Amino acid sequence: MTPTLSRLKKPFGTAKMVDLTAVRYLAWEDAFEVDFEDGLTFLEPHSTVRKANRISPTAAIERVELDTECHEGFFVHYDNGQTAEASWAFIRELPPKKGKLTGDRNTKANRPAGYFAGDYGADTERVALESAMSKVRQKPEC
Description:
The chain has helices at about 5-10, 45-50, 90, 125-135, and strands at about 20-25, 30-35, 40-45, 60-65, 75-80, 85. It is an alpha+beta fold.
């Protein structure tokens, strides 16, 4: 990755959402040219989109389609029926560092006390009420 590109891409999970305005496949570059609303344009290699979506190496691109509803990504349709999806974050953010999973941010160490339901214990009144209600026979209303 070039130094200029790495300066424009933000660390994983920190970029602000920006709508896509256009996307096209450049065969001579084997890359996608992705234009954003703020004026930036990124050239994303086809190999990274293919690898991220586990697309067969023999598949050929049939068409590229911008997400017209939300403008937050694009789809690549291949001749073998596979479809790759690339979101705005995939284009504008650096990949996560090795060993860091996206779920690591939701560990107990990173959240305040009371964030997780297990911090409160069981609601004994509710458990007793549900137990009593399960023993009551109910007749269907006709």
